[in-house]
Write a structure and sequence with these properties.
Elements: H1 2-32, H2 39-42, E1 45-52, E2 64-71, E3 80-87, E4 95-101, E5 112-120, E6 123-127, E7 132-134, E8 144-147, E9 149-150
Parallel strand pairs: 1-8
Antiparallel strand pairs: 1-4, 2-3, 2-5, 5-6, 5-7, 6-9
């Protein structure tokens, strides 16, 4: 009888130990599963600059600037958009901009450019008419200054 009680006591203690271990593991699990900051956001880079323009009329209240970072290396194909930012409302000239991009989207030996359009809905009001090269093999990292020309 004594050996049965001893075995029962050992079994109860073993189960109690398992229960405590299980409870501690559950308590520690949330700390181990803490969500880290997204790696993608921390690896983003950006280019800054300003946009200058003169229009024959005041800039409409619903106008916006569309700033695009594009791969312009292929002359026989349309530019590939890497990143795009919309600025609205548009204030007085110059307007500062910051366009973020993922460096993994860039390829070696490629030319990149910043293109800017001032639009009101689908109507184009002004555009940059000269290439503003950035990054890649022929550009700078910023800040850059872009001048828009009014569209007649």
């Amino acid at each position: 009888m004594l050996s049965r009680l001893s075995l029962l006591a050992v079994a109860v203690l073993a189960l109690a130990g398992c229960s405590m271990f299980s409870r501690h593991a559950k308590d520690e699990a949330p700390a181990a599963k803490a969500t880290p900051a997204p790696v993608h956001q921390s690896l983003m880079k950006s280019i800054t600059g300003d946009i200058r323009y003169e229009l024959p009329q005041a800039v409409p209240a619903d106008a916006y600037l569309l700033v695009t970072l594009a791969d312009v290396s292929r002359q026989d194909a349309p530019a590939r958009t890497v990143s795009e930012e919309r600025i609205q409302p548009v204030g007085a000239s110059p307007v500062d901009f910051l366009i973020s991009y993922d460096p993994s989207e860039l390829r070696d030996g490629v030319d990149f450019a910043i293109n800017v359009r001032l639009q009101q809905g689908d109507k184009l009001l002004a555009i940059n008419d000269t290439r503003t090269s950035v990054l890649g093999r022929s550009g700078e990292n910023g800040p850059v200054s872009i001048t828009l020309k009014a569209v007649p």
